[in-house]
Amino acid sequence: MNSGADLRWIPPLHLAGAWQMAIDAWLLDRAVSLTSRAPGGGAMLRFYTWSRPTLSLGFHQRLHEPRWLALRRSGELALVRRPSGGRAVLHAQELTYSLIWPQAPFRRQQAYRRTCAWLQAGFASLGLPLEFGTDPAGISQASCFATSTAADLVEAGGGKRIGSAQLWRRGVLLQHGSILIAPPPDLWRRCLDEEPPLLAPLPCSREELIRHLQGAAREQLPLASGAWRPQPLQAPEWSAIAARLGRYQLA
């Protein structure tokens, strides 16, 4: 992170997927605007959950799977578009994180490694060490969790615990990702036509995991002379975010 910059900590939010994606995108644009006036402005970290099982598609991914539409028609699944790239992610019994880093390392792999160090430290302290995936990027799969690339974190047994995606804008990085907790096997199979990753059970609740990872982030994402600022979204911010909802809703 950048010397002298504050990091905004937004308390966890439990909302529909279009709201969560609009929040991330708006916070990225806000950071771009702030950084243009004061280098390092707009750094942010938050965790969030989804109000119902939701499949998020990468920004350029086509909505081409008939089973996704069938699950939406049955009311079992919501569909949203992410502002970032990548492949489909099923958000059900998981935790999503979002990090905004002004003036992040320009090389993508270096940025992933530095932005994932706190996740590795947090899970290692829980007795669940994670390593980066080794699959080559660009494999044609509809599901994000079907492969494990250098952007992903996997357990010793090979199960993919965390899948992340990035969006860069004028030197500011938005990285958000899905942290699997206990993916529902039946919905996972019907949605993604594959088995969910085999993962060790977490030794804590979701709320405890958030506190644990927040502590790891404070250790691994230090702001040399800045501070962590707990600050919920304010009414004018909610209004600006609401104006973006249509960009991420999939009709």
Reported for the largest beta sheet, the result is: 8 strands, mixed
**Structural domain count:** 1
Task: From the 3D structure, determine the CATH topology.
Answer: BirA Bifunctional Protein, domain 2
Mean pLDDT: 90
Radius of gyration: 17 Å
Q: How helical, in percent, are the residues?
A: 25-40%
Which CATH architecture? 2-Layer Sandwich
Query: Could you give the distance between the termini?
Result: 38 Å
- Broad CATH class: Alpha Beta
Q: What would the keywords be for this entry?
A:
251 residues; alpha/beta; BirA Bifunctional Protein, domain 2; eight-stranded mixed sheet; three-stranded mixed sheet; 6 helices; 25% strand
General description of the model:
With 251 residues, the chain is of the alpha/beta class. It has one domain: Bira Bifunctional Protein, Domain 2 (BirA Bifunctional Protein, domain 2). It is 31% helix and 25% strand. The protein is built from six helices and eleven strands. The protein has helices at residues 17-37, 66-73, 108-124, 185-192, 206-220, 235-242, and strands at 7-15, 43-50, 54-57, 78-81, 89-91, 94-102, 131-132, 152-154, 160-169, 172-180, 228-230. The strands form two sheets. An eight-stranded mixed β-sheet has the order 7-8-9-10-6-2-1-11, sandwiched between helices. Helix 1 (17-37) crosses helix 6 (235-242). The longest helix is centred in the N-terminal third of the chain and has 21 residues, at 17-37. The mean pLDDT is 90.
Task: Annotate the secondary structure layout.
Blueprint: E1 7-15, H1 17-37, E2 43-50, E3 54-57, H2 66-73, E4 78-81, E5 89-91, E6 94-102, H3 108-124, E7 131-132, E8 152-154, E9 160-169, E10 172-180, H4 185-192, H5 206-220, E11 228-230, H6 235-242
Helix pairs in contact: 1-6, 3-5
